[in-house]
Design brief:
The complex is a heterodimer. By secondary structure, chain A is α/β, with parallel strands linked by helices. Chain A has 10 helices and 13 strands. Classes of the chains: A alpha/beta, B alpha/beta. Chains A and B meet through strand 12 and helix 7 of A and helix 6, helix 9, helix 10 and helix 11 of B.
């Protein structure tokens, strides 16, 4: 089996690569990236592509054909700190469109794409447990709206191309020593501002479990969207405390004013709507992944959160 | 102000029942004169008693002069199912004691019927009728001799069927100066109160009950007779303190023998209550709670259990919650539809506690709250940790899948945001979503009426609360010791229900309105018969 991977240097890619390497079913791993990643393993084959470049789909199509891919993990999403939102948008939305176009042209048989449970949004009247059928109502912040757009493209693609087995994994906030996303960066600062009088229910997923879920998607017969979540739900304040950080409850009006002021000064680009995630519970139902994907989180909640105390490896 | 309001609306004079807030003080004083020489030996303040008598009289005359019986009583009172239903309809103004018609066959077991309070000096006729239930004979009833010169007949009839149980029926509450018949009816109690000279209205009550296995009674009581159905009467002698007013603790048939929890609550509770409260504050502020995990609905089992002593204390001693008809709840999932009341939604937790106590075999209930509560700081988190769930169909369906009783308040936020002057006036019942869900899941709908919430936390004023992300900040008092009374009705008949709720929206709407009417009827009746608020 020949497996393609984009965004192998992302934290998801770094988790997945050793598993693919160890998987006897995988003959070779074709790594698509702009620069040669340092994580390459013996089975890896590097192909240079720049997903943000216009007209990229032709190049991708050719590469897909040449490599005779059986499956593609499209992990090239921006979770780490970016300097330009425009670049991130190009990579995530436009890059994904290129990938989808190439996948359609070559008749790829399997496409695995990670997503976020945060796309459901946090709302006061939302369901306690979002199933995969819940509309994606997350707004207000670039890395959510972009991913919502990507999901819409994927959905249309999946309808039009029943021959391609599309698997979308919506991950709960990923934690772990190697995880690098806005949430883990917030936790690593040591002080987490929270809204006084609010303590929403969250859930987390350990990075190893995230990689396991991705790996499962390579062989599963199931298709469609799956929430991939940890084994427990907990108040946000508990997650902060167990991860070794200190929560700093601030009155909502004060926090909002501070954020706006920082935004105006250009110091920070955290938008106010993001506070909804600190205000309302947002929990996704992982039942479908359990039943159809055979995914069960192995790292218990306490261990997963406590692993944030470990040094980055 | 409230008094003015009630006079302005002559159409709804009884909507609030016996409500001193809606009544002029002058009226109360005027009628309180007939019993001026209430004996001082009575521990509870006779003053209070006499004051209480006045409004009662007014209401009664009002209802006797032809106020139609609330709609709900019709289907319910004559229902085959054993329900505790007091029929508000006056039964004849005959000045004679009414002969009893109930079955008197359960006489075999001698029940202890005790009245620990010495009534020697009371102007009250106290009738203790044993299980043999010969109260039926008018002769016995009419004889007020044990307590000579009583203007009041007091009937205590023991729960005949419960002879085996060590419970006693006690009436520690003094009724001095109450010119009314006070009836404590057991499950098989048949009491007819004698007509006495002082009583301005004839009192009589019929208690009809099938048998002990379903220890509930269909009681038809005159608006007069204060009816307290206590299939397992609660008041253990331990509770018989002069200041206690345990008569309100009439409990539903399946009540736990709750003398144990009460006494334990008394002993340990204060420290525990404070601990629990501290925990609740930590949780509500979003400071890290001690417990790491909550269930997927957001309920914190550890917090709930540490708050339980406080809850029990409030429930038992402070609000003296009285529950009727808990036996109507089926085993398995159901939707309980209740009125919403008070500045802060206390009714959810109180109802939850009531279900815990009276139907411990049921799965833990959860209640749905509208999103406005979850916009609010502190309140939303606390409610959620205690078991409130965001109201939406998906949550309701999922909770029913877990075989839980689900409490809904279809009035939603409008129920909470009505001012105190409009207490117990039901708002629109949402869009009938609960009917659709009940149909889809094929679960029964249980209407429930709750009184006490409005007086416990009256909404006095609203301050604009945009700064905090809420519509308004309620101005209220710390929870007041109003008495609560919860009544469950039998399941709503789903006869003629469409197979798909969407197939017959009119039916859904009709059912929704019917449930609303039924709850309104129950509220009206309970308020009319409420004898005191605090």
């Amino acid at each position: 089996m020949r497996v393609g991977v984009t965004g192998v240097s992302s934290d998801l890619g770094r988790g997945l690569l050793p598993r693919l390497e160890a998987d006897p079913l995988v003959d070779s791993i074709v790594v698509f990236d702009v620069a040669r990643p340092k994580e390459l393993t013996p089975k890896c084959l590097f192909v240079r592509v720049d997903l943000t470049r216009p007209g990229m789909e032709e190049e991708l199509t050719r590469a897909f054909r040449e490599q005779q891919l059986d499956a593609l993990f499209h992990l090239a999403f921006v979770n780490s700190r970016v300097h330009g939102a425009a670049f991130a948008h190009e990579l995530e939305v436009i890059g994904s469109m290129h990938v989808l176009a190439a996948a359609q042209a070559t008749g790829l048989s399997r496409l695995v794409i990670p997503s976020l449970t945060a796309l459901y949004g946090a709302r006061a009247n939302g369901p306690a447990l979002c199933t995969e059928a819940h509309p994606l109502l997350g707004t207000g912040v670039r890395f959510i709206t972009d991913r919502v757009e990507v999901e819409h493209h994927i959905e249309q693609f999946a309808v039009r191309n029943p021959g391609v087995q599309v698997v979308v994994l919506r991950f709960a906030p990923i934690v772990g020593p190697g995880a690098d996303n806005p949430f883990t960066r917030l936790l690593r600062t040591g002080f987490v501002p929270t809204l006084l009088g609010f303590d929403p229910v969250w859930q987390v997923l350990h990075e190893d479990d995230a990689a396991t879920a991705l790996h499962l998607a390579l062989t599963t017969k199931a298709r469609g969207t799956f929430n991939v979540v940890g084994d427990s739900t907990a108040p946000f304040s508990s997650i902060v405390r167990l991860s070794g950080a200190q929560s700093v409850p601030l009155p909502g009006p004060l926090l909002r004013a501070t954020i706006r002021a920082l935004e105006t000064m250009g110091v920070s680009s955290t938008p106010v709507p993001l506070l909804d995630f600190l205000r309302y519970s947002w929990v996704a139902d992982g039942e479908r992944a359990r039943a159809q994907l055979g995914f069960a989180p192995r790292v218990p909640f306490h261990e997963a959160v406590a692993s944030m105390r470990e040094r980055k490896r | 102000m409230a008094a003015r309001k009630s006079t302005k609306k002559p159409k709804k004079p009884t909507a609030l029942g016996n409500d001193p807030f809606a009544r002029g003080a002058a009226v109360r004083e005027a009628v309180s004169t007939p019993a001026p020489d209430a004996p001082k030996a009575r521990p509870a303040t006779p003053e209070l008693q006499t004051k209480r008598a006045a409004p009662k009289l007014r209401v009664r005359t009002g209802s006797l002069t032809g106020r139609p019986a609330p709609k709900w009583s019709e289907p319910v009172a004559h229902d085959a199912s054993p329900s505790i239903v007091a029929d508000p309809q006056p039964h004849g103004d005959a000045p004679t004691a009414q002969p009893l018609t109930g079955p008197i066959a359960h006489a075999a077991s001698p029940t202890t019927v005790a009245d620990p309070q010495p009534h020697a000096d009371a102007p009250t006729a106290q009738l203790l009728t044993g299980p043999v239930a010969h109260a039926a004979s008018p002769a016995t009833v009419a004889d007020p001799q044990p307590h000579a010169g009583a203007p009041t007949a007091q009937l205590l009839t023991g729960p005949v069927a419960h002879a085996a149980s060590p419970t006693t029926v006690a009436d520690p509450q003094p009724h001095a100066g109450t010119p009314t018949a006070q009836l404590l009816t057991g499950p098989v109690a048949h009491a007819a109160s004698p007509k006495t000279d002082a009583a301005p209205q004839p009192h009589a009550a019929n208690s009809v009950l099938d048998h002990a296995a379903s220890p509930s009674a269909v009681d038809e009581a005159r608006p007069h007779a204060e009816l307290r159905t206590a299939p397992i009467a609660v008041d253990a002698p331990t509770r018989h303190t002069p200041r206690a007013e345990p008569v309100t603790h009439a409990t539903a048939p399946l009540a736990l023998p709750n003398s144990a929890p009460i006494s334990s609550a008394e002993g340990v509770s204060v420290v525990e209550a404070i601990k629990g409260l501290a925990r609740a504050v930590r949780s509500a502020t979003g400071l890290s709670s001690r417990t790491a995990e909550v269930d997927r609905w957001g309920k914190d089992a550890t917090l709930s259990s540490s708050l339980r002593p406080l809850g029990e204390l409030l429930y038992e001693k402070y609000w003296r919650v009285q529950v009727e008809g808990a036996e109507h709840l089926p085993v398995g999932p159901c939707i309980i539809v209740a009125n919403h009341a008070g500045a802060l939604p206390l009714d959810g937790p109180v109802l939850h506690l009531a279900l815990r106590r009276h139907r411990p075999e049921l799965n833990e209930s959860r209640w749905l709250l509208e999103d406005q509560i979850f916009h609010a700081p502190f309140v939303g988190v606390l409610a959620n940790r205690l078991g409130a769930v965001r109201a939406n169909p998906e949550n309701a369906l999922r909770l029913l899948d877990e075989d839980r009783p689900v409490v809904v308040f279809p009035e939603g936020f409008h129920g909470l945001s009505k001012p105190f002057s409009e207490r117990y006036q039901l708002r629109r019942f949402g869009r009938g979503g609960y009917v659709k869900i009940a149909l889809r899941k094929q679960v029964p709908i249980i209407p429930a009426a709750i009184i006490g919430g409005e007086e416990s936390m009256p909404l006095l004023a609203k301050i604009p609360g945009g700064l905090f992300g809420v519509e308004y900040l309620p101005v209220t008092l710390p929870p007041l010791p109003a008495r609560w009374h919860i009544r469950f009705a039998p399941p709503v008949s789903l006869v003629g229900a469409p197979s798909e709720p969407e197939a017959d929206l009119a039916w859904v709407e009709r059912t929704n309105l019917g449930v609303r009417d039924q709850i309104e009827g129950m509220l009206t009746h309970m308020l009319q018969h409420r004898d005191r608020i605090f």
